[in-house]
Amino acid sequence: MSVSFTSCQTLDDLESQIGHWLRETPAMFCLICGILDNPKFTSWCGVLSNNDEARAVILQSSGYPLLIATPFEVDPDLIPLIWQESLRAGRECIGINGPESWVRVLEATSKWKSIEPMGIALHHLVGEPQLLHPCDGKARTATADDAQTIFEFMHGFHDDVDSNENSRTIDVEEINNVIDAYMLWEVDGEIVSMCKRIRPVFGGCSIGAVYTPPQFRGKGYASAVVHALCEQLLREGVTYIALYTDLANPTSNKIYHQIGFRKLNEQLRLLWDKPS
């Protein structure tokens, strides 16, 4: 047994280590690649190998769970190395997010109790997007005039799906800087739903921040706006479209399946119950 960790500071570094994975299933690594490529995050990243064979990619940003992406089941030989590199990086590890087999072994070897487990599914679009139940309204790309509404929607989105306070630091100025990344669904001049293109890496893109305020739900607006963004991204020539869902939310999983998204894998996110 010979285990090793190869640091990757850029996407080029990562591609040199796992280029075959990125060519075959780029969506599987969209989250790690997107964070590594985003200057907003100060992250460390690297490839775990056993006997000179790449087995997994890990990435950690301060205040966020450690991320693991891999096409393999857990390799127990690499678990001590993950803890070693995490400590060496000197960043606060608040939890773990990755394939369940890896997360469960890390949970069993952690000195902290785990809390707030969340099942997550990664999906990618297969074929042309479908809209089974068209609804009133129309899609449009956001403009600067929409920034305040998007800001309010983003807070509602994080209230619904994310307990991590670090995700709430977005402000109106930051939204304006990427305003054309947001797709809106509008009915009679009122914005009723939104989504956002995120993590444009290796020829593809992900969709996130899908949100409809409670008073507008159940009318098909989320499906319509996601469908519209998928169509636009495909017109632009993206090679894959990915998104994550909460496994505990059957509604979102159903509507994305109807659009044409198919599950790539399931993951588990745990947070550590550290003393204050």
Secondary structure category: alpha+beta
Question: Which topology of the largest domain does CATH recognise?
Answer: Aminopeptidase
First-to-last CA distance: 39 Å
Q: Could you give a short account of the major beta sheet? A: 12 strands, mixed
- Strand arrangement, largest sheet? 1-2-3-4-5-12-6-11-10-9-8-7
Notes on the structure:
There is one protein chain. The protein starts with a strand and ends with a strand. It folds into two domains: 3-121 and 268-273, Aminopeptidase (3-Layer(aba) Sandwich); 127-259, Gcn5-related N-acetyltransferase (GNAT) (Aminopeptidase, 3-Layer(aba) Sandwich), CATH 3.40.630. It has helices at residues 11-24, 30-36, 79-89, 100-109, 147-161, 172-177, 221-235, 250-259, and strands at 3-7, 43-50, 53-61, 66-69, 95-99, 113-125, 138-141, 182-187, 190-198, 205-211, 241-246, 261-273. It has 276 residues and is an alpha+beta fold. The protein is 32% helix and 32% strand. It is globular, with a radius of gyration of 19 Å. 36% of the residues are buried. Strands 1-2-3-4-5-12-6-11-10-9-8-7 form a twelve-stranded mixed beta sheet, with helices on both faces. A hairpin with a 2-residue loop joins β8 (182-187) and β9.
Main features:
12 strands, twelve-stranded mixed beta sheet, 2 domains, 276 residues, globular, alpha+beta, Aminopeptidase, 32% helix, 8 helices, single chain
How is this fold's topology laid out?
Blueprint: E1 3-7, H1 11-24, H2 30-36, E2 43-50, E3 53-61, E4 66-69, H3 79-89, E5 95-99, H4 100-109, E6 113-125, E7 138-141, H5 147-161, H6 172-177, E8 182-187, E9 190-198, E10 205-211, H7 221-235, E11 241-246, H8 250-259, E12 261-273
Parallel strand pairs: 4-5, 10-11
Antiparallel strand pairs: 1-2, 2-3, 3-4, 5-12, 6-11, 6-12, 7-8, 8-9, 9-10
